[in-house]
Write a structure and sequence with these properties.
The protein is mainly alpha-helical and 223 residues long. The protein is built from 9 helices and 3 strands, in the order H-E-H-H-E-E-H-H-H-H-H-H. A 3-stranded antiparallel beta sheet has the order 1-3-2. Strand 2 and strand 3 form a beta hairpin.
């Protein structure tokens, strides 16, 4: 899941475009199961098909795309086993970042701004935006430990997690309760109480994982 570490060295073209495609996954522009057109994507980014195929291989190794012989390349559709592993990684990376946090870190300011944006999107009923902003909030949380390698690793986690959420039609219940919980974690970090923030984050992640797994079970019962 952390195959992006090597991308940070010189940022070759393949890594740059792969990062932009991951951004499209995180923002919800590419849906799980969607077939990707080599011609359209190569034209969009102004690259050759050979370069694009290298990028596809990289993203496939990161569990974000799936290559099906004689059919093409598709956006991945992560299942319940992936959810369990994603949250296992989140516990390790995010709790480590929280424990290393300083109350003066500039990432806390970004988190405060993102929290306000999430509240505004919630009030407007724009749950897709709430989901995107929430991921940005937690990306900023990882930046508290000032580790480019962990941030690169977490980028993959966020992209795969977005593909999980995108499989559900109604995501309000998967996002609404967590805006306030984000606020509680942020308040503890701003107060310099990393122990409290770590416990709050642990409870957040456990509750969120259970909610996502329950959503999968609900979809299975409905089909």
């Amino acid at each position: 899941m952390c195959a992006a570490i090597g991308e940070m060295e010189d940022e070759p073209l393949t890594a740059q475009i792969a990062g932009r495609i991951r951004g499209m996954l995180i923002s919800g522009e590419l849906a799980p199961g969607a077939k990707l057109s080599e011609q359209q994507i190569a034209s969009h980014f102004g690259i050759s098909r050979n370069t694009l195929r290298e990028i596809f291989r990289l993203l496939t190794s990161q569990n974000l795309l799936v290559h099906i012989p004689n059919r093409g390349v598709f956006v991945a559709t992560p299942g319940e086993a992936s959810v369990v592993d994603i949250y296992r990684v989140r516990h390790v990376i995010q709790k480590g970042a929280v424990r290393a946090a300083l109350a003066t870190h500039p990432a806390l300011g970004r988190m405060r701004e993102l929290l306000a944006r999430a509240e505004a999107s919630r009030d407007a009923g724009d749950w897709r935006s709430v989901g995107t902003i929430n991921m940005e909030f937690h990306r900023s949380m990882v930046e508290l430990c000032d580790s480019p390698r962990l941030s690169a690793c977490f980028e993959l986690v966020l992209a795969e997690l977005r593909l999980v959420f995108a499989q559900f039609e109604d995501t309000a219940h998967l996002h609404a309760p967590y805006i306030a919980l984000n606020g509680e974690i942020l308040a503890s970090l701003e107060a310099g109480d990393t122990d409290a923030a770590s416990k709050q984050l642990d409870a957040y992640l456990v509750r969120s994982e259970r909610s996502v797994l329950a959503a999968f079970q609900h979809v299975r019962r409905s089909t």
